[in-house]
User: Fold these one by one.
Assistant:
Number 1:
Amino acid sequence: MATTEPVLVIGAGVTGLSTAVTLAEAGVPVRIRTDERPAETTSAVAGAMWGPALLQPADRVQGWVARTYHRLVELAADDTSGVHLAAGRMAARVDLGDQLPPEALLLPDLRRCAPDELPDGFVSGYRATAPLIDMPRYLDHLTERFRAAGGELLLSPVSSLVEAVEEAGRVVNCTGVGAHELVGDPGVRPVRGQHVVVRNPGVTEYFVEIGAGPEFTAYMPHGDHVVLGGTAVDQDWSRIPGREAGAAILRRCAHVEPLLAGADVLGETVGLRPGRDAVRLEVERFGGGTVVHNYGHSGCGVALSWGCAAEAAELVLTG
């Protein structure tokens, strides 16, 4: 895969960094340009955990998710990566039945919850050990790997694809919700997510509500802190935490896990997930150059990251 012609990656969230690392560690000269440092991106405030991604195109998404799962399990063996394996529950207020996404079967200890394992108000669910990702640490890990492989990361916004292809003949667009403006894609919309971060009072297992609406219950422990969620508000560009939304998150999570009642609040965060009807991972010929678009992952950027990065790297070098 090695080449002497540099590749420009736009964006430094989990998608951009994973793509850039894949290219750089294969011997490709890579530069990242971004208008936000990794720690300032939506990726940095994600929960985050691996799980099935019910997105389109379904057949490709299954492959991307499976590939990412195996990479994250490998990374969990590295104490510095920010990835760890944790047990927990995925539950719903309706009967989930027995039809599971194929990717869920990758979890070796997946089983249905017994009735006494479900919180009040939940009627079905599953237990499994899954990868959890402490995103600030994980993004630092990816950044260090990228630089160690010779990559260059510049805090330098890209105003247009014309500018990008003038700088490099091969470009990977990993701008997330920023693609709404950069490429004029009206199908990209912000899905506003808010989290509350608390000091960990002794929580060791995660909990995720499945199939909820704009407000749901979720918490992911990451050692000394727990990320509580959450919200998914469509078409909301605000990145200012809402006081009422934060209080509601705390109430919902404490209802499921009483240990969280009264936990010390360390901060509240907001990110804009890049909602889209389908993930866009494809080649576009533009201005004499090649642009690979890799965006539109909705709330599943982490779960799709390594699979999409591998395909984007292949497309940019062969497409």
Number 2:
Amino acid sequence: MDQAEFRLRFNLHPLATQDPAAIPHLGLRKAAVLIPLQEIQGELNLILTQRPMHLRAHPGQISFPGGKIEPSDSSAITAALREAEEEIGLCRENVEVIGTFPAHNTFTGFEITPVVGMIKQDFALRLDPGEVADCFTVPLSFFIEPQNRHRKQFLRQGRYYSVHFIPYQQRFIWGATAAIIDHLCRHLSLPEEML
């Protein structure tokens, strides 16, 4: 899928007012992530990061660039762009924001707003070793295929939760990142007669 097809699919569907996979509860810490889309040889790829093992929260997990919304951030979009610049060296001026998805609530206590952004031109990765151990791309076409996205019910503290996961090569994408990818792919899915 290239940029033109992505824009067509993204804009044909109205954005939902809430994430259908959201877990409702109060007192969540607000965070934002950037879903960075980069066209590589005519195909859109998602940029993902892997968190270092020394971090207290979510060590080693694969995620989007992002983090807590700070008081100095004017919006979730501002926070996502700031975090992407800090974590992987992606300048905010190099990102065209396409839109945001409804906040995704996690059972770990976060309300995460996904911000969809198209990277305007190639850039040199500059990883913050305190936040990012690795950075890699995955073709969006891999995620679009429904058989590559999985969901399973898990019991935690007496309550069942739906956990998304996506194996990719030697990597394992799961939790909020996989749920956000699933939401994006379901949003982009169109019946063949509409294409």
Number 3:
Amino acid sequence: MRTRPYSEVDVFSEEPYRGNALAVVHDAGGLGDEEMQRFAAWTNLSETTFLLPPSSPEADYRVRIFTGSEELPFAGHPTLGSARAWLDAGGSPRANGTVMQECAAGLVPVRVEGESLAFEAPPITRYGPVDEPLLRRLAEVLGIRRVEILDASWLVNGPQWIGVRLASAREVLDLQPDPTKAGDLEIGVVGPYDAAGDAAYEVRAFVGGDPVWEDPVTGSLNAGLGQWLTDTAMATPPYTVSQGTVLGRRGRVRISRRDGKIWVGGTVTSCIEGTVRL
């Protein structure tokens, strides 16, 4: 064991401690897979990241991303949170105004705009309609009638997301998923707000388990939803998404489009800086 720099940051909220927390271990060289996984489970946060020297000459750093039970090739809020922690620790991007992150899914550009950061959405590797038996199962999991699902699509971009579109933000907020039917599904639900406000959509993210675990604010899901809603003419970037409302959070995800690419952004705040013995 040795002492390493350690950070915790709050991602996707303009109000500190109202977004999604991320633990970041800096200078993580020498740590094995089992050590990283054990520490990620111990933090009891949705994800923990480990910063390493890049293997690609184009990258500023390399990151490994762990949930409490597995390693992910890519995830959204860990991307922005890791970039903020790296910058706050003195990192200087090679490209002016853009951090180039290397992860298992490849290189991910992160734009720096003050306290706000935005990543370019990675390619969706499975994208398309959901078959009828699965649609019926999704409705059962979410506790709604099949007819209430207006549309659905696979949105796999690392996590195995399935996007589900409902008629309104109110319907999204009222969902009460049934954990006994979720299995290993990863479900993202979106619905529009009728009245003008700071957010155009409400989003909720459910990951199968017992009970169903709800993610406070989810970058990868919103990246997939941004592509899908734009492609189906249901949304026109830029727009803002609200997430985490039912959990007492105030997540705000900003979706924009540049040169045909979807970008996912939000405010990231450093909350804890110190050291950890690993």
Number 4:
Amino acid sequence: MAIGYKLQIGICILLGSICLSCHTIQSKADQEKAETIIVFQPFSGFSPRSLAYLEKKLHKNFSTIVINTPIDLPHQALNSSHKRYRADSLIRFLHKKGRPNEIVIGLTKNDISMTKKGISDDYGVFGYGYCPGNACVVSTFRIKGSNKLEKLYKLTIHEIGHNLGLPHCAEKTCFMRDAKGKDHFNELTDFCQKCRKKLPQ
């Protein structure tokens, strides 16, 4: 009886180990197929109206959107003149907040800048993001005109495109067109067919 009891326990432990291994493999597979989650990280002073508009528009492409509590812009991201915030510093800051399958989008009303080789060490930009990666930042500071919200959406989807691995595109109506410091948002209509094919399905 004692031998039979030990044998029964051994079989249960073995079966338990097999089931645990299967569960682990399945969990990894599920993670690989997991949807992309959009995480908004508004910085202090960002318009709640703009935030609500972005959430509504992006829900057409992403089913899960998380909105974090607004926080102050990190002081260490200020440039030497204390007038602009360094976009590269901001996305490094935001990257640390991200988890697997998340894209963290920093939203600010303040001016942001980056180093543009051969032009300026403090070049003002609309937005900036890793390509590919899990973090980007967009600013409303340079957005002008009566349709600012629509332009903000196009800017945001452009930076998300970079996070998903899309480079700049030569097609004038594509969301991935390089702004080159100018406001071309009214000419953008959608991702072109070439860029859309590159997006994760």
